């Protein structure tokens, strides 16, 4: 059987491969027409068992902009999963119809299970509170475009660091690049998981944990804001108590470096005041565009299109 690559975890690609992907992303960004027929005749299947706007549409738009086509299950409530079909059987089935699969699922580890049985390249588009490697590729392309490097940066990550899967994937990946330091800004209830801290300690990567943005703002090269992940809370009262802990506004931005960039995987709830959108450092809507571009690059890589 033909061997192929999947993307399940942000550790699946080496730094060299990530840099190659960033280069391809930059090329697609500056010359999209060159790639518009590269996947003619190929089909992407998107399987989203959790809500999504950006990730799903950016995968589908990426495949369409490469000249390929997409199939999807419009509402997981009408899929055979509700008849009791196992995830493995669904993945095997979908692989008979498509050339590549992107799946989002509410359970941590579901992507690992899917990878074991898939017949075609498989992409994890978010598995519960665990990982979201294609958001990390999006973040890396945005950072490399605005900061011209993925090294020697102080990165502040703010908000729900416990359940925020984009944070988990991004920290693990950026820690592989030289000289990056992390500042984790969260309420005590939503601190970064112990396993991430162990991962950083094992690799001698510097990090600190703080409770306010103000005390570290002037040190940051990147501020990565996140929403509190309501759907992963066990009770609504805790969510309500914590949801507005951090609201980034123009006043807090006053002490930030002039070339700091603000990123957010989106959706935003309340954590960035809309007045910040017009600040030249706000890059979260540019990030959305880079998300589609880097998924084009990823599809080309996994389908081994030259
Ligand atoms: C993120 C996700 O789904 O984890 N969104 C996204 O894919 N852009 C972040 C979030 O939902 O808060």
Automatic annotation (TrEMBL):
Top class in the EC scheme: transferase
GO biological process, one term: 'de novo' UMP biosynthetic process
Catalytic activities: carbamoyl phosphate + L-aspartate = N-carbamoyl-L-aspartate + phosphate + H(+)
Record-linked Pfam families: OTCace (PF00185), OTCace_N (PF02729)
InterPro entries cross-referenced by the UniProt entry: Asp/Orn_carbamoyltranf_P-bd, Asp/Orn_carbamoylTrfase, Asp/Orn_carbamoylTrfase_sf, Asp_carbamoyltransf, Asp_carbamoyltransf_Asp/Orn-bd
Protein function: Catalyzes the condensation of carbamoyl phosphate and aspartate to form carbamoyl aspartate and inorganic phosphate, the committed step in the de novo pyrimidine nucleotide biosynthesis pathway.
PANTHER family per the UniProt record, alphabetical: ASPARTATE CARBAMOYLTRANSFERASE (PTHR45753:SF6), ORNITHINE CARBAMOYLTRANSFERASE, MITOCHONDRIAL (PTHR45753)
Protein name from the UniProt record: Aspartate carbamoyltransferase
The organism of origin for this protein: Parvimonas micra
Taxonomic placement: Bacteria, Bacillati, Bacillota, Tissierellia, Tissierellales
Gene: pyrB
């Amino acid at each position: 059987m033909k061997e192929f690559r999947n993307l399940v975890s942000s550790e699946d690609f080496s730094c060299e491969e990530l840099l190659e992907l960033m280069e391809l992303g930059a090329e697609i960004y500056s010359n999209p027409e060159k790639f518009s027929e590269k996947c003619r005749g190929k089909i992407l299947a998107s399987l989203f068992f959790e809500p999504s706007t950006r990730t799903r549409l950016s995968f589908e738009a990426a495949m369409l902009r490469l000249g390929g086509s997409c199939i999807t299950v419009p509402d997981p409530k009408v899929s055979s999963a509700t008849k009791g079909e196992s995830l493995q059987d669904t993945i095997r089935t979908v692989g008979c119809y498509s050339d590549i699969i992107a799946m989002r699922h509410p359970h941590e580890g579901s992507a690992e299970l899917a990878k074991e049985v898939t017949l075609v390249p498989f992409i994890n588009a978010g598995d519960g509170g665990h990982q979201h490697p294609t958001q990390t590729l999006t973040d890396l392309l945005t950072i490399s475009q605005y900061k011209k490097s993925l090294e020697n940066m102080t990165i502040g990550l703010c908000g729900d660091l416990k359940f925020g899967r984009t944070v988990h994937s991004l920290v693990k990946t950026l820690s592989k690049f030289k000289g990056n330091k992390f500042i984790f800004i969260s309420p005590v209830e939503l601190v970064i998981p112990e396993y991430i801290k162990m991962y950083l300690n094992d690799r001698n990567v510097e990090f600190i944990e703080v409770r306010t943005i103000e005390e570290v703002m002037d040190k940051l090269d990147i501020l990565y804001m996140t929403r509190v992940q309501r759907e992963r809370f066990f009770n609504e009262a805790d969510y309500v108590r914590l949801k507005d802990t951090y609201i980034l506004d123009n006043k807090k931005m006053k002490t930030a470096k002039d070339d700091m960039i603000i990123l957010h995987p989106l959706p935003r709830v309340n954590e960035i005041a809309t007045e910040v959108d017009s600040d030249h450092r706000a890059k979260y809507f540019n990030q959305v565009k880079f998300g589609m571009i880097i998924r084009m690059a990823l599809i080309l890589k996994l389908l081994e299109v030259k």
